[in-house]
């Protein structure tokens, strides 16, 4: 029976996590959700960025140990914020029978948002894990130019709670409220 949902873990690499706001908490949330997904038979797809500052094979390029993919789990390499652009992500999801993506990772305003919107444009339903994505730590040099990290995360969660996309279901759920045991995957909510 084909899967309906897949958990996407975007750019949770050593270099990115080293600059992430609430890094340990976000890694722990994703790790817990990933284990629940595996137990429920929901595929986990790891997306890994490469570029001039994140060179394949380097320590910074490696996925953090707590989120390292298991043997046989799909890993998709990308070179832009869009996890679908010039990658095997769409083909991988189609081969798995996926109709909904559950999005987690780094960075909220860049790769997470771009991938989430592209998933919608490509026909996937979407669940954004409210406590499963993060952005960079803000420095004094960023003051006045960037929204504080907590506010940025909250803003993107609010956008996805209100955004409309014809023919698509969009949900924002805390990891604890993502129900992976129902046929609808994350679109279901565990009973209170």
TrEMBL record:
Q: Give the E.C. number(s).
A: 3.-.-.-
What InterPro entries would the database entry show? Isochorismatase-like_dom, Isochorismatase-like_hydrls, Isochorismatase-like_sf
Domain Isochorismatase-like, which positions? 5-139
Q: Which CDD domains match?
A: nicotinamidase_related
Question: Which key words tag this protein in UniProt?
Answer: Hydrolase
Q: What class of enzyme is it?
A: hydrolase
**Molecular function as annotated in GO:** hydrolase activity
UniProt-recorded name of the protein: Cysteine hydrolase family protein
Species this protein is from: Streptomyces lancefieldiae
Taxonomic lineage of this organism?
Bacteria, Bacillati, Actinomycetota, Actinomycetes, Kitasatosporales
């Amino acid at each position: 029976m084909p899967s309906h949902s897949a958990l996407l873990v975007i750019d949770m690499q050593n270099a990115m996590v080293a600059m992430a706001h609430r890094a340990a908490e976000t890694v722990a949330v994703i790790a817990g959700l990933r284990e629940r997904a595996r137990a429920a038979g929901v595929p986990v797809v790891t997306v890994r960025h490469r570029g001039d500052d994140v060179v394949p094979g380097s320590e910074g390029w490696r996925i953090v140990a707590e989120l390292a993919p298991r043997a046989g789990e799909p890993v998709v390499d990308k070179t832009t914020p869009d996890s679908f652009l010039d990658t095997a992500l769409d083909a991988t999801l189609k081969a798995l029978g996926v109709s909904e993506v559950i999005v987690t990772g780094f960075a909220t305003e860049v790769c997470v948002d771009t991938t989430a919107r592209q998933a919608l444009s490509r026909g996937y339903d979407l669940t954004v894990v409210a406590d499963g994505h993060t952005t960079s730590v803000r420095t004094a040099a960023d003051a006045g130019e960037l929204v504080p990290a907590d506010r940025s995360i909250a803003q993107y969660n609010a956008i996805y709670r209100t955004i409309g996309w014809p023919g698509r279901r969009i949900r924002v759920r805390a990891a604890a409220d993502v129900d992976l045991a129902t046929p609808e995957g994350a679109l279901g909510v565990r009973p209170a």
